[in-house]
Amino acid sequence: GKVLREVLASCLDAGGVSVGAAYLTEAAGRLVMKAQVGYPEATQEELMEFFGRTDLLHRAMEQEELIEVPSSQVEDGPAAELLRQARAKSLLILPLLLNEERLGAVVMISAEKAIERQQISFANAVRGQIAQAIALSRTLSQIEYQATHDPLTDLPNRVLLHDRLRQA
User: Fold this and answer.
1) Burial of residue 81, with CB atoms counted within 10 A of its CB: 0-12 exposed, 13-18 middle, 19 or more buried
2) How far is CA 5 from CA 34, 47, 61, 119, in A?
3) pTM listed for this prediction
4) Helix count (H) and strand count (E) of the chain?
5) Which candidate, 56, 41, 73, 63, places its Cα nearest to that of 107?
6) 86, 132, 145, 153: which is deepest, by most CB within 10 A?
7) Is 166 strand, coil or helix?
8) How far, in Å, CA of 163 to CA of 16, rounded?
9) How far apart are CA 35 and CA 26, in angstroms?
């Protein structure tokens, strides 16, 4: 989580916006917000469910392309409501894909002005790198789990027991 937040903050800063969130795919394709930058605590609840518009996150992942709001990709009424709730002038949804796997989506939010073409180009260029970092992190977590659990019973093994004893 901490690393994802740092990566998100760096990407937002380099992309010229100061607000954003990262949603990752979990079991059964459910999207869960794993990191956010720039939103106050009061809006955390709304941001967790992407202001009731997680369908846009899923659509970006399914279509494998960026979604810009406002644009012709989203109807004017729903787009205006989303921007109002997000307290934004415009936003960009970046699907995170790697080898046909839908990892999640990153949202870049601009509160002051419309997101410009060079920002969209930058976002498009870095989203693949973000996806690779997430996939690598997941692979490392799986390897760590396999090293500390029995493959047959899925119970903690001797390595994990020794580690916990050292910690205690």
Assistant:
1) middle
2) 8, 15, 21, 20
3) 0.80
4) 6, 5
5) 56
6) 86
7) helix
8) 43
9) 14
Q: Which two tokens stand for residue 99?
A: 């080898």
Interval 22-48: pLDDT, tens = 999 987 888 999 888 888 877 778 888
Structural contact between residues 8 and 106, judged by C-beta atoms closer than 8 angstroms: yes
Q: Which residue has the tokens 């894909």?
A: 97
Task: Please give the Cα distance from 101 to 16 (Å, whole number).
Answer: 28
Beta strands in the chain (DSSP E): 19-25, 31-37, 67-69, 90-98, 101-110
Amino acid found at 165: L
The residues, ordered by sequence, that sit 6+ positions from 11 with a Cβ below 8 Å of its Cβ are 20, 106, 108, 123, 126, 130
H-helix segments, 114-157: 117-148
